[in-house]
Specification:
Blueprint: H1 13-22, E1 28-30, E2 36-38, E3 42-43, E4 56-59, E5 63-64, E6 79-80, E7 84-85, E8 100-101, E9 105-106, E10 121-122, E11 125-127, E12 145-147, H2 154-165, H3 175-183, E13 187-188, E14 191-192, H4 194-203, H5 210-217, E15 222-223
Parallel strand pairs: 2-4, 3-5, 4-6, 5-7, 6-8, 7-9, 8-10, 9-11, 11-12, 14-15
Antiparallel strand pairs: 1-2, 13-14
Length: 224
């Protein structure tokens, strides 16, 4: 069922309706700024889109615009109740992405060099593997799980995970701790700088000798 405003209608209303019909978008409201709210899911994946065909404001369910040719998220909803996916596009930026996502957020397999524009809050997993990220500035403050593998920053986060497994770091989802860990630049040109790692663990109250760390990590890293 479709709900449309009945006053002060825009001359674009019929065009918006036609686009919604084309992409099987139902249960929507056209707002005064010609954006739409959708009570349900929106699936725009695999449509060879270079731009989003409508301006969305709120989507109560999932929003999927993956497997297209998008270079911008202009027009994406600012609030998504379920999952949001812009997986496998040509995005260099997350500007325009929703700021609140109730489920998973996936921006993997793009060309991102920064997470600027990322949601402030993600209810479940934050997926951004296979991009060109060298830092995690603008990482959401709230999320349950992070996958940032296959990025230039991945080796540092892999080390963070390894230390978590050994019990040196108890909360691998603490953003401030991750940021401090990254700022120390403990891996350079594929070489683990153990002295910096020792200093980091001392500072967070998890001391470990250089020799013990080398013994634990020597099979995974080239060490200096």
């Amino acid at each position: 069922m479709k709900y449309i405003r009945t006053f002060n209608e825009s001359t674009n209303t019929s065009e918006i309706e036609a686009i919604c019909k084309k992409y099987n978008i139902k249960n929507y409201i056209i707002n005064e700024d010609d954006s739409i709210d959708v009570d349900g899911n929106v699936d725009l994946s695999h449509e060879k889109l270079k731009v989003l065909p409508l301006k969305f404001r709120k989507v109560s369910g999932n929003f999927d615009c993956g497997y297209n040719q998008l270079t911008s998220l202009e027009g994406a909803p600012q609030s998504v109740g379920g999952d949001f996916s812009c997986y496998n596009n040509q995005l260099a930026s997350l500007e325009g992405a929703p700021q609140s996502v109730g489920g998973d957020f996936s921006c993997s397999s793009n060309q991102l060099i920064s997470l600027e524009g990322a949601p402030k809050r993600v209810g479940d997993k934050f997926w951004c593997y296979s991009n060109n990220l060298k830092n995690i500035d603008y990482l959401p403050k709230y999320y349950k799980e992070l996958d940032i593998s296959n990025n230039p920053i991945s080796k540092i986060l892999d080390l963070f995970t390894k230390l978590n497994e050994y019990g040196f770091i108890s909360n691998r989802e603490n953003k401030d701790l991750i940021m401090d860990f990254i700022d120390r630049e403990m891996i350079q040109q594929d070489i683990l700088l153990v002295n910096r790692l020792v200093e980091f663990l001392d500072d967070i109250g998890k001391p470990k000798s250089r020799e013990e760390l080398i013994e634990l990590l020597k099979n995974n890293y080239t060490i200096r």
